[in-house]
Input
Amino acid sequence: MALSLNKPKLDNLTNEIWKSAERLRGKFKSYEYQSVILPIIVIRRLECVLMAWREAKSAEVLAKRPNLTPEALAKLVKDLELNPKQSPFSNATTWTLRGVYEDDQTLLAENFRAYINGFSANVDEIIQHFNYRATITTMVAYNRLAPILNQYKELPLGPDQLSGLEMGYIYEELLRRFSEQSGDEAGEHFTPREVVRLMVELLDIPIPERHFSVYDPASGSGGMLSVCKEHLLDRASTAAEKERVEQFLTIHGQELSPTNFAVCQADLLIKNDQSAKVFLGNSLIPHDPHSRDPGDQLPETKYRFNRMLSNPPFGVTWGGKDGYELEARKLQKTRYSAGLPRVNDGALLFLQTMLAKMVAPADGGSRTAIVFNGSPLSNGDCGSGESEIRRWILENDWLDAIVMLPDQLFYNTGIFTYIWLLRNDKPASHKDRVMLIDARQQFEKEPKAFGNKRNRMTDAHRQWIEIRYAKGWAKSFDDANVKLFKTKDFAFHKVKVVFWQTDAHDEPATLTEPYEKAFTAANLKKEQEFHDSDITFRVRVKVDDKVKTITVALTPADSAAKKLKIALGQTLGDWPEIVSVEWTHRHYVADDEYIPHGEDIAAFLKREIAKPIIRWEDSPQLGYEILPNKYFYRYQPPTPAKDLLAQFWTLEKEAEKMLEGLAK
Output
């Protein structure tokens, strides 16, 4: 499968399509542009496929029956088109976009609706997901139907003119522009095909000998699933192997966005892919057939998958009033039993969803590749949902490797991203180990930027990663960009520690501050036990409308109750009104220390704090975090001062020359 693209061609075509969005200004809101443009692109692409099919079928029929009249030929070809066994989709009318536009303009809307209504049920479902009939009404009201049809009636969008890969890039570029126009933050990021290809190759998908399934819980427009199958067909070296791919491979997906789902369904129709099952709905919640919001229609109680890959949305809120937290929590005792991440980032819910659908190792096991930003690596403190999910994954020994990718690879974001590779069928050489691969320098510059995508990975860069993933497990392998860790190397203790503070002379430090707690004998006794040193309280009290200060000094051996009675009165009812309390006590610090697993905690505290420890307490469970940047940190000495001065004077001289030029 070729990964190279004709950028000038795609730029020109995208700009041509974008002109139709510009024609909507003043009539449609910017966020409504895509509801007009994306459906007409899909309709035109489907029309191109149908027109090519009709032409090829007409030639085929004429070769067998050359004496047919044009009318008889047209009727026969139309009958064949309407037969689902002959054509994967059809249109019962004789209309085309060009025909509708060039016919009677007073009947433009009526004829266009007739054309839309003439499509077969599978295309009609796509049109419904776009909610396009309502959009047509608005287009007619705003007098925008004619110019849109005029622009698209001959636009070359057929598969013979534009590959699925090229169509995917155009689709993403349009979505990027739509989101910029409307001011929206795109939570989802179209995955560059070189990254998808890398993920597919790292998953090591075999030419199947029996049924073999692939799954994506956030399938978008279906790009990952399509590349997966195309990759296998490319690898198939014989007709028999290609037949096995078609016969045994099934691809499965789910997509929340009706627009993305509609584009995906159109692409599957164009390819006539009978092995694909993609559903509209939220894969993170249980499915209720009676709910308006469809859920996971490929639940782990019925479905398991041999390979899974995904690029779920980054940083998308799943909880709160705008989320689906109540529904997701219904799976808290099953799928999400390890924990729930923070409500403003559901990335790890997708990973848990995929891991729940693994095939048992005894039946061949499963492998997973998922793209994340940096958040799932380390967000969340010890005991938090994120840390507990990482603990669950690592203690089950499912994490196999993490590949650090270059930045500026994606179209809608320039951030660094990471491919997590997981499997429940680790070979002996991988057991209790995790490989990290630093591939941040494996890129070349794009000849021309596509949005935020300024870098790209070539075949050589992908092969560089694949070689290290395959061979890096051997003891003899030596590469600074590959590091192997034991699963417990990512674990840490969160230790609550309280220690005495000292002054500049390393003498016990004291602190004077307001006493915010209730001034009772019980509280004072607790302070004595905690500090185990002299404490002085200065109590401002009101007596006969006058305020005076009473000092209460306590040693560790004193009875706080007796001291209070002497200072304030024999019984609580006799006490004067307390205005405020200030106390002086030995200064202590309460802090959390994060200590790598395997360290002696007491020795670590003694070495790192070097102060008298009052007490410490370990957390009830280990925390887990993965810090790739730390592991691959390479010290770079600062530029020497003399070199910086030389650069400064060089710039100073250049500035002087520029000023002299302006003066002339």
Summary: DSSP finds 23 helices and 19 strands in the chain.
